[in-house]
Amino acid sequence: MKNLFILLKRFIPSYKKYIVFTFIFNFLSTIFNLFSFATIIPILQIIFKINTDTHSFVGWNFSTIDNIIYSVKNNAMYFIENLITVNGELVTLCILAGFLVIMTLLKTGSEYLAGSMLIPVRTGVQRDIRNKIYRKITELPIGYFNEERKGDIMSRMMGDVNEIENSIMSSLEIIFKNPLLIVVYIVMLFVLSWKLTLFVIVLLPISGWLIGTVGKNLRKTSLVGQQQMGVMLSQIEETLGGIRVVKAFNAEKKLINRFAKINEQIRTTFSKINRRHLLAHPLGEFLGTIVICILLLYGGMLILDKSNGLDAPTFIYYLIVFYSVVPPFKDLSRASYNVQKGMASLGRVDEVLNTPNPIQNRENIEIKEFESEIEFRNVSFKYSEAWVLRNINLTIKKGQSVALVGHSGSGKSTFVDLIPRFYDVVEGEILFDGKNIKSLNIKSLRSLIGNVNQEAILFNDTFENNITFGVDNATNTQIEAASRIANAHDFITATESGYKTNIGDRGSRLSGGQRQRVCIARAVLKNPPIMILDEATSALDTQSERLVQSALDSLMKNRTSIVVAHRLSTIRNADLICVFSEGEIVEKGTHEELLVLNGYYKQLCEAQSFK
Which residue ranges make up each domain of the chain? Predict the structure, then answer.
């Protein structure tokens, strides 16, 4: 029961009005159902001429429950006897049948309205949880995604959210529908025969306990199943992203076997879950049949004993009402399984939602412009155990072009990732115009920085929407101007729909050089005072590199630029070149100054036959 309230407290408050209406319509449906069943008693008495007694109208007496029951039964029979006297038995049967149809129509209509009230809850809860997860994953730092599988995150947003939604709907039935039905029906059973009902109440908890034992391990098994689904989605995502490599290395069989193994594990796990889930219905039906058989024996004894006041039509009505109690009990058992599965999924979703974000706004100082310098003061950084950067001291002046060179793994990319606070320094501090960047508002800091990376990251959208990504209210003139600076306007306008042309998944319809120039156009339109270029041309052929480098030169004019360079020929004219080795800046100066030192930089130049 604790799990039920955990689910409802977290996700239902904004849908209170729908829950209230659902409760009202469920209550009306139950009452109409009882009225429709009640017509069976006089119908059977008329058809089989079971009761030949006559009744006189008595005044309504509401002093005790027994008097109320007697008044209702007596006056109802008096009214029916009058109908028979005035209209005959056949017409009375038609009237009763019409009453049964009307009550059934009202009952089913109320059921429909109760169900329709839950539709906004069902769809709204899914929307709310997915929005929360998506908002959270966009807020989490980049380091989180280096440790988590993308497919597993997708699994949590889809499969686990569906399980939570099913669990919540089951919780609503458990609390707002089934208990209501059970209470109303049991009250009616007591009214019809308290002896028979006490006998039943002893039997039902026993059968409920047997059903409940089936679902004890369902939560644990469901958790394993969702984790395995995450692993499978991760492999699918990796396969689609690396399909060229898979085919180039003839690795199809290897991946097929790995996928088949994971798929078989999922099949085994969900087979256990489904078997346990399916057992609820037959077990409940079997135990319910046993209870009915015992009830028939005991009820028959009471009918044969004339002193108990229970006749055959009333007993049949009693059985119908009792059978109406059984489905809610069975639904409770099935719903409890869904709640257990939902709690397992909720745990996986909460792992994402409760992940702390170490990159926080502290003093939250807003900055509008870059005024003087960026200073690295005794900065050290590590992702886990090994230090990636050690004791970095560097000042980047406004308007300066700073190049970072060195072997792969020397810490260059990590260095530039610290400036927009993709990661926070472990030791030391970074000062932005004299202020520690941890005290600055993150959004305002990043608004002053543009990025062009080695991998051209584009979205499955139009040229226009990719270029204006992150920039609101850009005009067509501004978009075109940015594209011209990036040497992208000509090939964009040559496409079928120009700037409205969709570029495909990750820009798959474009060449590498074209993708990179679209990214540069995006950076130009943002028009930041600081540009970070992380090996923006290293993956391009010579012709594409020339076009992109020309666009980069235009981009860096009158800006502070920090360039991670693979090809040293591209940074010869930089104001300052910093040479990285094993996480430290071992040399810095202009191109000519570093050549004179005859050290690391000269070795790098000679390795590239730089002239």
Answer: 2-353, 372-448+530-539+559-611, 457-527
> Under a CB-based contact definition with an 8 Å cutoff, are residues 427 and 378 in contact?
yes
Mean pLDDT of the chain: 80
Q: Does domain 2-353 have CATH number 1.10.3720.10?
A: no
Quick: pLDDT tens for 306-315: 666 667 777 7
- Cβ-Cβ contacts under 8 Å for 580 (sequence gap 6 or more): 404, 405, 406, 407, 410, 411, 412, 415, 586
How is residue 467 written in tokens?
Answer: 């270029």
pTM here is: 0.69
Instruction: Check if 372-448+530-539+559-611 and 457-527 are the same fold.
Output: yes
Hey, what's the torsion of the CAs at 86, 90, 92, 98, to 10 degrees? -140
For residue 141, what is the DSSP state?
-
pLDDT for 299 equals 76
Instruction: For residues 392 and 556, give the distance between their C-alpha atoms in angstroms, rounded to a whole number.
Output: 24
* pLDDT at residue 610 greater than cutoff 50: no
What DSSP assignment string belongs to 477-511? Answer: HHHHHHHHHTT-HHHHHTSTTGGG-B--GGGTTS-
| Fold topology of 372-448+530-539+559-611 | Rossmann fold (3.40.50)
At residue 92's C-alpha, the angle toward residues 91 and 93, to 5°, is 90
DSSP string, 315-355: HHHHHHHHHHHHHHHHHHHHHHHHHHHHHHHHHHHHHHHT-
Instruction: Concatenate the DSSP letters of all residues of 156-211 into one string.
Output: IIIIIHHHHHHHHHHHHIIIIIHHHHHHHHHHHHHHH-HHHHHHHHHHHHHHHHHH
Q: Which CATH architecture has domain 457-527?
A: 3-Layer(aba) Sandwich (3.40)
Q: Which two tokens stand for residue 326?
A: 């059984």
- Phi, psi angle pair for 453, to nearest 5°: -100, 170
d(CA 60, CA 58): 6
Question: What's the Cα-to-Cα distance from 268 to each of 32, 225, 272, 452, rounded to whole Å?
Answer: 46, 9, 7, 46
With 0-12 / 13-18 / 19 or more C-beta atoms within 10 angstroms meaning exposed / middle / buried, residue 92 is buried
